[in-house]
Request: fold
Amino acid sequence: MSDTEFEGIVESPWSGGASPFAINSKKLGMWLFIVSDTLTFSALLVSYAYVRLASPDWPRPFEIWPAIAKSTAMTLILLSSSLTMVMGVAAAHRGDKNKTLKWLGWTMLFGALFVIIHATEWVTLFGEGVTPWSNPWGVPLFGGTFFGLTGLHMLHVTIGVGYLAVIAWGFKKGKWNADHVEVSGLYWHFVDLVWMFIFPMVYLMSVNLKG
Amino acid sequence: MSGHANGEAGSHEVGSTGLFMKVWVWLLLFTAVEVLLAYFRLHPAIMLTILVGISLVKSALIVAYFMHLKFERLGLFFLLVPATVFCICMMLLVFFPDSIRLMNLRPH
Reply:
């Protein structure tokens, strides 16, 4: 893997400052970014969970069909995109350029599909009068937290698709190597991970079973 | 994908296609359990606890296998995870006792 270039420099975990984690600086940088982004999303999710539990009249607008079915499908798409991403990283480390590009292509396709389905859902909600500032149920915090959380996540997915496109282009040109693909994979899996919290906390906590 | 659990001469590849598929299937199963839970009318606090619990297991799977943290130096784990968990616990410490108190103040 990516630590080949450091072999010989680091003989024990305590051998000094050369490379204590035996990873390249790109990867360490991405990991540190992920930690800081985790705390951003945690703050949003914790404050959402706070108002969700503290509000007795929290709306439950998501019916099993179509809202929950749609968001479950989106979860499936994002999980599958993570699988194709790992395949891409594995292929990149084997030096198999065509397979890497193929798997990256699938990952981008799944990511784009996720954003499109999500966007149609937003449009439906706008049609029902749900906006970030107001909604028919008189709990403006619902829209604020829903669009805040899903919006920031959707922004991450959109940036991720662009990021992967740039990486795929550079990898094809021979400009960048497997380490770059692996680091972009870390970002992609993180975006998947965040959705694993948003989906149950935002959607499944507001299921409307009466319908 | 051609090779399975092979070392691929010279490469440091960790984790095989089979392993990643297995993790993916587990993630789908956990998701299915979460969606199933939505059909029961559980108390919001209990529902939230179970859902977040399952999501934590799912994210641990993603971080360990998909993000390769399991195959990195232990030092990297100690650099990243304890500080993150500590910060999140600080947020929970401030918010949660109060939200549960507010919930129990409800007249019903």
Summary: The two ends of chain B are 58 Å apart (CA to CA). Residues 1-12 of chain B have pLDDT under 50 and may be disordered.
